[in-house]
Amino acid sequence: MRITHTDYLELPAPFAFTWNALRNPAVWAALPTGAERLGETWYWENELYTVECEELRPNPAHAHAARYTKQLRWQIRPIAATGASVQIDIWLYDAVIATHVTIRIAVEGIGLRRPWQYARLTRRLVSIFQACRTQVQSRLIAGTTGTVAPVASIPAVMTAQGETTTHNLADMLRERYPQTVDCFRAMHAVDQLERVYALEQGWQRLMRGTVADNIYRLTPMPAATNVTNFDLIYVGGGLGLLHAATMACCYGWRVMLVDRGEVGCAQQIWNISRDELQALVDLGLVRWDELADVIMREYRSSLIRLYNSPYSRVPPHELRLPNVHNLALDAGALLRLLRRKLEAAGGVVRDYHTFCQVRVAQDGPLRVAVELEDTTAQTAGTTHATYSARLLFDGMGPLSPLTQQRYAGRPFAGVCPVVGTVARGFIAGTAPDQYDPTVGELLTSNADTQHNHQLLWQGLPGRDDELAVSVTYYATLNDSRRPLPPGETCSLLDLFEHYFTLLPNHKQPGPDFQHIKPVYSYIPTDHSMRSQAVPPLRGVVTLGDAAAQHNPLTLCGFGAHVRNLPRITSLLNFALHHNLLEPQHLERVTAFQTNVALNWVFRRFMHPWGKPHQVNELLQVFMGTLNDLGSPTATRFFQDRMRWTDYRDILVRVLERYPRILVAARQVLEPAQIVRRLRAYLRFSGVAAQAAAARMAGPGVERTAYRLAGRISPACELRLRAAYAEWRVMGWVE
Fold it and tell me: pTM for this structure?
């Protein structure tokens, strides 16, 4: 009789290292098989065995695997005729920074057994295999990383003035990240390397739950200020600049915006559709002729293409979307344009000002006193100043100290580290590994998991032959069922090193290839199911990544921000006029969307939970479903306008195509998360029913409802206006 067990797994080491380790007798001797080596033989369960290892030529049966490289076979035979013989076949596939392995174990000659005895033997075989697999993986991780100190242990080199010296830092980092340091030096971006390092250190503090002291304080009375008061103060000159310019230019409020760097200095590409960008024109903030220099390129379609794993049972699908994120914008040019408009409207802009703390009136009329440090000042005693306003807007990104304090140091349920470069000189063509300036690659993969992450790529053509290429993965935080792997820190520097290693396999570099500038960020994927699971801080409103309310799948914070800009600025204008500035009022002035909040569960399946191919396989199912449902449904999904019927149709089609999703859900989701999922769906259904009633009632009933609500109280009218505004941005009400 014969027992077999086959498995497909990833070993977290490059192919050459893995190949040598698997051929090393010392590695096999240390495995927890229960066998003891006696000279040239092995002793196991009262039997002596011989072990022979050989390298085989490629097996034609595995020719479908494009990266199949080598095969090893072990023959384990008993010296006595009574024992069972074992054959172990291992096929290795080169995944560049990792190795994918198929293992088949066949045990023969075990004699006649009863069915339950076979089941017991099979379970024991699988248990031994899993223990051996875990030890091999740990040994490979230790072998590839144990010779170099982790980045967290590298101390910053400080000068006498207390500043980090970038070149010394680069020299220290080079031992662990040689390609990253060399490429940053070639881009003349060593100062950016220091920023990456500082951002990563800030993220490690967030992971440890470290909360800065005295950042936010409630006081009986706001401190006296030495400058003219403002209505609104914005800290963070990225997406916050769009909001600030709208409030100053379109609504006439007194606005101040500050940033620790130069306001309007951005190096990334922002993508959006022409229909969505119309929102800025409709607000009166910009004109299309002014955007001519901002729009770098318009694609004929945006593309989602996933790796066709040889182990997947799902046919591959490409999803092409002609009206989704098909405009490439120069983020720096747009921000500089809006800065000029903000200043022309009387707004105050302060470059190189660092947020220190905010003091908020505990009772009575809401005022905030914001202390800033001028990092350009040279005279002692003039570096700090305090400014007063009615509200503070927090646009300081995912590492905002105010967001950390609000969420007690653990603000996010998940995160996507993103790194990449703007580069030029790729080989032009229409193949997946070539540069096609007419197509924007929103989401692509070219392998199964690597280092226990499903790496997802993005390629956005810009000006001339420039291509902004980035890579990311989904990491789930604070999940007892799927904790981060040992040693996992969501490191940007680790990901940069992988990026520079993998890029030539992703896109072919030509003879004139060069990196121009780096791109990097931590993108939080969500806070929780509801808009405000934790009460807002009094006097503080979050924007952008600090709010983490964009779609956790598309990760397009710019598009979500622009789509919601008319909504949140009009509601804020109403709240300011009626002095509705308490947290219970401002929680309505938000970019939260019920249909987007429902997508948190999708993100859970983007983090590997089983075999290396399963994330790609499930994504293929999802893209095939959207293909079946048609371009309008797919467009609504990626533009956060998914309807109740869209969601129902997607769920039904996915279950029809891939019933194993129910088994995967039990692996991925905890019982409490399943309950949370059901509650989210019920809330989604309730909001959809309310919107349907409002749509049938028409605009006349809406205007009447506003008047009646206003007679009750301005707060009641704000609540009603917020509901209609959310339905409109989701496309549920015209």
Answer: 0.91
